[in-house]
Amino acid sequence: MNEMNDKSKIFLIYSVVALSCVLILVTTFYIRSQRVLPEQKPYYSEDSQFESLLTLEKDLVLKNQDGEEVKLSELKGKVWAFAQFYATCPMCAKRNSQGLKALYEKFKDIPDFCLVCITVNPEEDGVEQMKSYAEALEADSSNWLFLTGDAESLKDYMVSEMKYDPIKKRSDPEEAATKGALAHNMSIAVYNRDLSMVGRKDLSAARADGDKVYQEVEKSLHQMIDVVLKQK
Question: By CB distance 3.0 to 4.6 Å, which of 82, 147, 218, 232 could disulfide with 62?
Fold first, then answer.
């Protein structure tokens, strides 16, 4: 009889402890659900001033996806985002179909905004490749340009005027298979109405650090463009 009472007491004690733990957990979750989180502050305010990192002094004539001649000087007066790419680059395909496409969908109805992608492989990327790439992304040539041109002039311009590193061929076959045969800059540059670059954001590098980092970098890119668009 005493043994049964002892077992009953032990069972009762464990039951009370278990119930207490459940109540503590429920209370904790309730308090957290009722807590008002502070509103996230924007990365940039409307008064933010962006220092010019470089200004395009010389012009470059290229051809867009419609086979029409385009001068970079014609972008003066617009806010534009720029990215290097080439048609067979697997990393570009991911960045362009996600990061650049999201950027395009957000700002495409703003007349003062334009997206610009210039191939780093003009020897193989002609107007036909630009056209196919643009169609796959449903890009209108009025506000999303895919550009190609004379290989020597184009590559020299990117290095001397836009301050990018020269394009290099990858020597590791495995790396070339996963990242593409040509190593190039994957960042997205933002230019103001005076053809001055005011910032660069690398969504591809952010993606490698996880979804949260990617989302934060993407938000900061969108906010930067928002602010620059409001500055006349």
Answer: 147
3-class secondary structure per residue, 152-171: HHHHHHHHHCCCCCCCEECC
Q: How far apart are CA 208 and CA 211, in angstroms?
A: 8
pTM: 0.79
Compute the distance between CA of residue 80 and CA of residue 88 in angstroms, rounded to an integer.
24
First-to-last alpha carbon distance for the chain, in angstroms, is 90
| Domain locations in the chain as residue ranges | 1-37, 54-230
**Residue 74: per-residue pLDDT:** 97
pLDDT tens digits, 198-231: 999 998 888 888 989 999 999 999 999 999 999 8
Name the superfamily (CATH) of residues 54-230.
Glutaredoxin (3.40.30.10)
The strands making up 144-147's β-sheet, listed across from edge to edge, are 54-55, 196-201, 188-191, 79-85, 113-119, 144-147
Assess contact for 115 and 189: CB atoms under 8 A.
Answer: no
